[in-house]
Amino acid sequence: MKNHLVRTHRSAAEFPRAEHLAWKVAEVATDPVEVAADTEEMIVNRIIDNAAVAAASLTRRPVSNARAQALAHPYRQGSTVFGVDGRYSPEWAAWANGVAVRELDFHDTFLAAEYSHPGDNIPPILAVAQHAGRTGRDLIRGLATGYEIQIDLVRAICLHEHKIDHVAHLGPSAAAGIGTLLGLDTDTVYQAVGQALHTTTATRQSRKGEISSWKAYAPAFAGKMAVEAVDRAMRGEGAPAPIWEGEDGVIAWMLGGPKAEYSVPLPGPGEAKRAILDSYTKEHSAEYQSQAPIDLARRMRDRIGELDQIASIVLHTSHHTHYVIGTGSGDPQKFDPRASRETLDHSVTYIFAVALQDGTWHHERSYAPERAQRPDTIELWNKISTAEDPEWTRRYHSTDPNEKAFGARAEVTLKSGEVIVDELAVADAHPLGARPFARDQYIAKFRTLAEGVVDPAEQDRFLEVVQRAGELSAAELPELTCTVSADVLARAPRSPKGLF
């Protein structure tokens, strides 16, 4: 990996295009390096993972509405929309599938200077691959780039510090991945990356206060914008430049300011794109910093005994966990039993309380209104708080994978005065956890979440196709989807009439 120093340059200063970060990203995208076997295996795992969570969310209102919008844009040689037959315009297929993947907050994650769900790259890159008649090998190469670029930007450039939503790294990565997929030249990818960044930079209010369904729509919007940016760039349209480093660019006015510097690692020429191997998926449908606390709560239940004997619980954890999903956020909604599902899955106090009581976590039952409004849950929930611990913050930002941690230390004080303490650094499903996910676990997750939604024969067909993704012909690539019965689709809320 080569580190690239990125900072603001005045308009009058000499700053050759070849030194722009967008150009360096484009060079990575256009490097014809082959995808390593272990990287390809993980890419297939993540396609399965995306299909699993899309199946589980298929009948939810935001997904139903996004699907209805896509179905209003049929296209003879277009892309597939998860759950239904037919072919649709690629940007709208990317939109609908992106919402389905993101709705339950249940797919893969990478956390460093910034946060990300790099599996959000799959819907737009797959949609373009199907539309453009590309092969499974092209798809694998494109996805390797999408993961690489998003994860490398996340390693280096913090967005949330400046209240910018993390999808600002997704627009450029998806555009770069599509560029690799299509075999575009460096200049075209450069323009597409710049356009994608310019159109997908927004505030983090989507993940603050009363969190709405836009939390699921925001990544899908970034993927849709990436598809459109590539289309425009292929037609010869340019982008604001230099998009990151310009005097009125992203760094100067949206991030650290004119004096800020970022060191962005990117693969050198001929270097394999392996960043996906540093990411991890979720066993539980909740914000990633809740994964280890859920496992910790399950582990502590027997030691605690009767939960009504608890006087207080403090979760000592990282800056991010405390301020984004903990009591450091100052969001009263995180203790509101009538809060939206999107808000509850960003409340580690609620999640820890329910995991302690139930000893398990379910993507629907754990968020049901009757579950959140149980009096004993509300009582326990309000006994839980979080506190930032500098050591957990340091480990969160560590670049050593053996030291990096996303968990917490729980101190449970009983009414008797006894204090029970335990901690867990990483979730059980993490690559360094107690039960790391591999192919069998991804398939099991798909089977579990697809049950009652996707017919067993259709599950079998999809799993057979996806596990030879890299060998698929252009004619076979549209088979990388699942369809469901009309009875299943009828369970979804009817989408009100919009513009389309």
Topology:
Blueprint: E1 2-7, H1 21-30, H2 37-57, H3 61-71, E2 74-79, H4 90-102, E3 110-111, E4 115-116, H5 122-131, H6 136-156, H7 170-182, H8 186-199, H9 214-234, H10 250-254, E5 261-266, H11 291-304, E6 310-317, H12 319-325, H13 341-344, H14 348-358, H15 369-372, H16 375-381, E7 384-388, H17 390-397, E8 408-414, E9 419-424, H18 439-450, H19 456-466, H20 486-490
Parallel strand pairs: 6-7
Antiparallel strand pairs: 1-5, 3-4, 6-8, 8-9
Keywords: Lyase, Tricarboxylic acid cycle
Enzyme class: lyase
Catalytic activity: citrate = D-threo-isocitrate; (2S,3S)-2-methylcitrate = 2-methyl-cis-aconitate + H2O
Written account of the structure:
GO terms for molecular function: 2-methylcitrate dehydratase activity; aconitate hydratase activity. This is Aconitate hydratase. Pathway: Organic acid metabolism; propanoate degradation; Carbohydrate metabolism; tricarboxylic acid cycle; isocitrate from oxaloacetate: step 1/2. Monomer. Belongs to the PrpD family. Helix 5 crosses helix 9 (214-234). Strand 3 (110-111) and strand 4 (115-116) form a beta hairpin. It is built from 20 helices and nine strands. The longest helix is centred in the first third of the chain and has 21 residues, at 37-57. It has a four-stranded mixed β-sheet with strand order 7-6-8-9. The protein folds into two domains: 2-281, 2-methylcitrate dehydratase PrpD; 288-424, 60s Ribosomal Protein L30, Chain: A (2-Layer Sandwich), CATH 3.30.1330. The model has no long low-confidence stretch (mean pLDDT 96). It has 500 residues and is an alpha+beta fold. The chain is globular, with a radius of gyration of 22 Å.
